[in-house]
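Bumping with the actual sequence this time:
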Amino acid sequence: MTKEQERARARRRAERLDAKIAAKQAEAARNKQVAAVVAAVLVVVAAFVVIATKMSGDDSPTPAAGGTTSSQPTPSATTAAVAGCKPAPAVPGTKAQLKLPDKKTAAGKTYNAVVSTNCGDITLELDGAKAPQTVASFVQLARQNYFKDSPCHRLTTSGIFVLQCGDPAGGTGQGPGYSFGIENAPKDGTYPTGTLAMARTQDPNSNADQFFIVYKDTKLPTEGGGYSIFGKVTKGLDIVEKIAAAGAAGGAGDGAPNAPISILTVAVTEKKA
């Protein structure tokens, strides 16, 4: 082999080596570009999730139950004076845990419940024929003083018009120690003024202690089974309307009532035929 051939051969080896190095460098550059694009996409997705979370909100009455933690708003320091209301008592906190009562104890029966609040009495009629488990639970909780001094912690004033009550911890409690399923929910999602119904989480079996009073005709989602209607307001709806007129904390359409209202006691009696 001549020297010229050896030099040509060496050049070819050098060229092949340079080509390999260039290929590796190009691959590394592509990997960096891909990583940068992926990172940028992740940032955009994360930003979208944060914005969507802040903008979205569950507009149905869904409290915590069965050991979950509620995201319901806590009472605001901002209060509004409402005629006929006395100062609300301190929030008592989570009460003793109980066992689910037998629905047979309320089946076919009708009860009157006088809910005494710091703003006056609200009288309810409980329908054990249509919602025996729900009524049996409410009667037990009332007679065990479970509701004593518990605040009505949530007011909705936009699209949905309800005052939500029943949790001694103000919407952050663990419930009464049991939960149960949906009864007597309207298929069309219509809840007329004066309706008394159960609040729950997305779990249809999470009915427990929290309930709501509808103070203006309301449509609620039917997905998941709707919300159990177990009675109606027969007297004192004007009290709920006054609380609603004072608005929710911060001017929002969903929050703690500006005018604090708390359940002091609940007296339940069975109506005889």
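The tokens above came from a reply further down the thread. Residues 3-55 form the longest helix (53 residues).
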